[in-house]
């Protein structure tokens, strides 16, 4: 019989070896969409009718070979202008791993789209044109990846065919980018020289760069160690729904349903309900219609407690031994995603896990200039695509973790109470990882969120 410990370990091993979420980013005309198209095409992940449509459009434009960028640039405006505007999600698989790819735009005005695509990514592929090297937009993409605590970054130096496949060109760009990204706190950077148009080092090794002995892009994506070990983090259970059947069969049943955001919960464990601070013990755990003794993230379960406590949607259940502190003063970094500005004094809603409360923007201490990472003090407001620090006062306490400790319970949304528009995506705590923090995390096995 398999033990509970083995089951948890097996679940983590399965997640780590079969699924990778990654995002791509690059400046306009760096060949990002071509790289994604090449990756899909050469890994045999394109349907016949999709390829036929691409070939037809390419022929209409007078192109001799199919334009693989059209496999991801699906919007009409994207095809006409030859740019990526919206985040395009693609799902594909190889024999070694399944992938969820977020192809994000490169324009400055679509920074918010990159934030959306990279917010759940385990890895980011940043493209650089070998002829241009590291430019402002490259540094901007590296900064966004660092802000979102993306644990792995791949520098894909593209269009090596246009610089004669020179090793010195690649080495210079890799050295400059690695130094910059390391200063931001990115713990792992892998540089790969490629030609997306010719297919060099994308799926198949290049015969034109025998000086490079590293992996191809696909090989790295298939083998990069990515930890999804949510069970190693403190347990967090946001209540989504209270179940009270009050039927003849279950007259006294009271359960609290939701998805475990992180950690492991066990029957008999002492827990605290936040923000009330009331305590109890777990009397039972129901999963898929059966009672179990243990449950772990990201399972969806129903908890039964030993005591009748006033609990409703939005409350957080956590082990009493390491319950998070509650606060009404949220200090965070936010990326403003709405067209309307976010100003000091604005009344907003803050949505954290399953809890939504009223709040007011008390202060905007600074706006981040991603080109050189300088801080513009007291800007007064943030506009679309701005990233800045905010202090928000909430009407009710929130149980927030630092984003560096948990991307799930350390993130939140700011919402316009008038029409429900999402105004900003927030990350609680410090903006960038310190060098000391990076060193410690890089020495550990994987990243725990």
Folded structure, characterized:
By secondary structure, the chain is α+β, with helices and mostly antiparallel strands. It is built from nine helices and 25 strands. It has helices at 4-18, 32-42, 48-60, 76-81, 111-118, 136-147, 167-184, 217-223, 435-443; strands at residues 19-26, 88-93, 98-103, 123-129, 152-158, 189-193, 237-238, 241-243, 255-259, 264-266, 270-274, 278-287, 290-292, 294-296, 300-305, 316-319, 327-336, 342-343, 347-352, 355-369, 374-377, 381-382, 387-398, 411-415, 422-428. Strands 7, 8, 9, 11, 12, 13, 15 and 16 form an eight-stranded antiparallel β-sheet that branches. β2 (88-93) and β3 (98-103) form a beta hairpin. α6 packs across α7 (167-184). The radius of gyration is 24 Å and the shape is globular. 42% of the residues are buried. The model is unreliable at 7-17, 75-85 and 436-449 (pLDDT under 50).
Q: Can you tag this structure with a few keywords?
A:
449 residues; six-stranded mixed beta sheet; 9 helices; alpha+beta; disordered C terminus
Contiguous helical run count: 9
Biggest sheet descriptor: 8 strands, antiparallel
Mean pLDDT: 84
Helix content: 10-25%
- In terms of DSSP E residues, the strand content is 25-35%
Q: Measure the end-to-end span.
A: 30 Å
Coarse structural class = alpha+beta
> What's the alpha carbon Rg, rounded to whole Å?
24 Å
Morphology: globular
Low-confidence stretches: 7-17, 75-85, 436-449
Q: How many β-strand runs?
A: 25
